[in-house]
Amino acid sequence: MSLRTLPLLGLLMLGAAAPAFSQASAPASARADTTADRQLRALYEAEWAWRQNEFARLPGDDPFEAQGPRLPRVDAATQQARVAYWQRTLDGLGRIPIDQLSPEEVINAAVFRTSLEAFVANGTYRTWEMPFNADSSFWSGLNPRGGFASAEQYRRYLGRMADVPRYFDEHIVNMRAGLKRGFSVPRVTLEGRDASIAAYTVADPAKNPFFAAFTTMPARIPAAEQEQLRSEARRLISQAIVPAYTKLLLFYREDYLPNTRTTLAAEKMPDGKAFYRAQIREYTTLDLTAEQIHQIGLKEVARIDADMKKTMAAAGFKGSFPEFLQYLRTDPQFTARTPDELMGVSAYVSKRADGKLKEVIGYLPRYRFAILPVPDAIAPFYTAGRGGLDSCQMNTHDLPSRPLYNIPALTLHECNPGHSFQAALAREQPNRPAFRKQTYFSGYGEGWGLYTEWLGIGMGIYRTPYEEFGRETYEMWRAARLVIDTGIHHFGWSRDKAIAYLADHTALSRHEVTTEVDRYISWPGQALAYKLGEITIRRLRSEAEAKLGPKFDQRWFHDTLLALGSVPLPVLETEIRRWIASGGPNPRAGLSDGADPTP
Q1: Residue 495's Cα: distance from chain center in Å?
Q2: Separation CA 481–CA 513 (nearest Å)
Q3: Which of 150, 224, 259, 404 has the smallest CB count inside 10 Å?
Q4: What is the pTM of this model?
């Protein structure tokens, strides 16, 4: 799973169902700039500049490392004003003649429309009244894992620290409104989540996580100025951070948790059926019903189940399938002895993948990433890993629940050539509007992540039947999500039924099974993106292989897919089929960085 869905950015990054659109056949370079092009650019550039100001961002900010001197306003009046602005912008977009746009601007228009529709839909359901879930929260991630490069960046950080009390107070008001109308995180998923708030109530400033950025500061900042910045940090931790987190913790324990809903299904909330349909569209960018997705999931589960039993036989195991799962969960040979051992396996897998990338992808990004442990404050209830531009995180909490045979697939998905690789590549794409570079659609991004796990077969990443079974477990995990998410939110499954289904079909540890099911309960629709996105990519690849025959080169297929950046899945289908129709060429041929990398 990627970093791109933190609630702080909630409405910024996510998409809904892609509209129908047309695409001119000539390449972008062959068509003159049109009046419609200029109208569209003026619209999305104005919205992007407005959005940066609204969400307290500075030009050039990384989408997950806010550098502004304040936090965004999240009060209901501000939220409603944003929704009204997005609706006006959407209306303006509807007045631009799509059939008069140049090809690249047709894609820009589709991405922009899909994002705007999601922003408006979220406003319709007032999703800001439920600003966290069992996976992510508005109170985590406000402090960086490392320091900053300049004194100015430290001063901006101090400004954000000073703004935390106001920011939390607005969220608390919103959550009270959500509770009043029955729009809340289900209670059963919230046990123990208060620990992630309590971690920031440490009274000693030097031991509070917000002070970590000040422990080692760049030598270019004079010593006297460093001490001034540290002194202000200590003051703000004592007078702003600790009181704000203490107040939030009290609200969470005494007001929020006792009054949250006891139902599980999204469809049981106010206007729940429409809300769940909107969540499905947002995360998958596909116009599928819950019933259709459930059936797709059942078929995939049956297919992968047969593959897993073949792999069990290849491993030489003589018992039943449930006995094999128990063996994988309990035999000590599959457990890392230390966090560093798990991290080392992940790092080695990533480096082995590096050696194969030139055979798989034509254009390789220059930006590098680190592999780091998930922070202690959130690790007990966090997912197994998460990839992002600067770092790929591996969860080292409760090592027996993180079997080593899963690490190869997890590393490909989160790190290389999955999310961290993909984020670096998106950063380096030329001639792309700013809003395109910082827009994320889960169907595309998570679909690519799961697809890279499958790519690992051809790359020789899985060296034992156990590692191959780990890959199959991860694929089954994503297929089971289609069944479980729709089972819970549409068909009324209980938590116990969902846990049993995931446990019976995968070798995931019991800890991972429960944390994952709680994530699906509290975050409707998001878990559907992975498998539906991967199915789309693999289907398009099969089409390309069949139609291009010996002319098919997976490097150019992947370069074409990745060069688009994050797009709705219908846009991806249109563009890949255009590439197939043109003969499957190297999309970077003739560019200075488009040389054939064949060794």
Answers
A1: 24
A2: 11
A3: 224
A4: 0.89
